[in-house]
Amino acid sequence: MQSASNQENEKTASGGDEDQKGWWFSDVQARSFNAQQECESSLGLEESIETVKTAVKDLGPFDGILGFSQGAALVAMLCAVQEQKLEADFNFRFAVLVAGFRSACSQHRRFYEGPAITIPSLHVFGQDDRVIPEEMSRDLLPAFDGAQILIHPGGHFVPAASSHRQTYQDFLKKFQ
């Protein structure tokens, strides 16, 4: 899912700029996002959470949720919302977070302050990811109890080699 109200610019694999959607802005003035930028407040997160709530209500129910990059950071926050029972709108049985990270925005700390998230999770990250370095993805792991990990040698993408697909399938089979 992408929030239509937010946008971010990231370098694509081809090296060019591509206008992409985002879930919140870390730089409110510039209306931009950088995962490594520390900030006091963000713009757009609450609207993005409402967008997901609406999608779940209108299109769900869903067994699980998958997010990539900033979307994976949002998935972690949604899992925290569900775990802390702050909202009854979500009932995800599992989460897949690809190139996820812990938000550097102090306004988002509340999502990481509760007990570890018990929703089963698969965390996928690349050893050569220059957008979300491996260390950032590893920093998110303690927020989840019993997180399963898939590390690939590549960069900022969803790995899809046969061995990776097998890991996804094995993880998802638990929820059939």
TrEMBL record:
It is an enzyme of class 3 (hydrolase). Residues 6-167 form the Serine hydrolase domain. One of its GO terms (cellular component) is cytoplasm. One of its GO terms (molecular function) is carboxylesterase activity. Residues 1-22 are annotated as: Disordered. Belongs to the LovG family. It comes from Labeo rohita. The keyword Hydrolase applies. Exhibits ester hydrolase activity with a strong preference for long-chain alkyl ester substrates and high selectivity against a variety of short, branched, and substituted esters. Is able to hydrolyze ester bonds within a wide range of p-nitrophenyl derivatives (C2-C14) in vitro, with a strong preference toward substrates of >8 carbons. It comes from the Eukaryota. It catalyses: a carboxylic ester + H2O = an alcohol + a carboxylate + H(+). Keywords: Hydrolase, Serine esterase. Pfam families: FSH1. GO terms for biological process: response to retinoic acid. This is Esterase OVCA2. The lineage of its organism: Eukaryota, Metazoa, Chordata, Craniata, Vertebrata. Its EC number is 3.1.1.1. InterPro entries: AB_hydrolase_fold, FSH-like_dom, LovG.
